Amino acid sequence: MSNGSPIRLAAAGTLIAGLVTALPACSSGGPGEPWKVQGRHVANNFTEIVEESLSAPNLEEFDRGVLERAKETGRLEQADYDEAYRRFADCMEFSGEPVKLKKLSNGLYRMDTTPLSPGETLESAVAVVDKCSNGTINHIASLFGTQQGNPELLLNPYEIAYKCLESKDLVGSSLTFEKFAEVFNSPDSKGAWSESLGFDVFDDEAQACFIGANITLVGSGS
């Protein structure tokens, strides 16, 4: 393995730098500030999202079984999520890209990858993640993350994370949502989020909120 900085692959989440392009611009956030969007939703209910995943092409037997049970009961079970990650981790280890998983307080996993080997490219490492995600965590991880971390089915990942952090009393009263979202989209704050926000963003409880919002932070605490 290389001695270089470890990478965090977005197998079950989105790299923080890629979130802004996924958010639609609207009047509440302004055309140049889509990360400030508030109060918009991804679906009317959780079953809609499950049904959308069930309509995806090339579902494997494991995926389909989990999703059909979720459609029937209205929720994904922790045991199915755990099994999806077990299969994913086994595949990654067999492929020479072992991952370290840590279960957080909301039942979600934080995933750390190994450093890139000499001569290995990020693209080839991501290709392994994509391969191992198929039939394991590809649909299940994001759905379980929504269930555990985004019960209001909000659209904006920053809003999801902020509300969770607020409920845990991790953000001070002076830190508004607008300031919180701005930190992650300011070049001056890149990599210094903990200092800018006034709490450790890599603390387990904070990570439960970020991963529940489908946000993966890469930095010195990862």
Structural summary, described in words:
By secondary structure, the protein is mainly alpha-helical. The protein has one domain. Helices cover 42% and strands 6% of the residues. The strands form two sheets. A two-stranded parallel ribbon has the order 1-4. The chain has a two-stranded antiparallel ribbon with strand order 2-3. A hairpin with a 5-residue loop joins strand 2 and strand 3. The longest helix is centred in the middle third of the chain and has 17 residues. The two termini are 17 Å apart. The N terminus is likely disordered.
* Uncertain ranges: 1-31
Report strand %: 5-15%
Helix content: 40-55%
Oligomer: single chain
Order the strands across the largest sheet as they lie in space: 1-4
Could you name the key traits of this structure?
single chain; 222 residues; mainly alpha; 4 strands
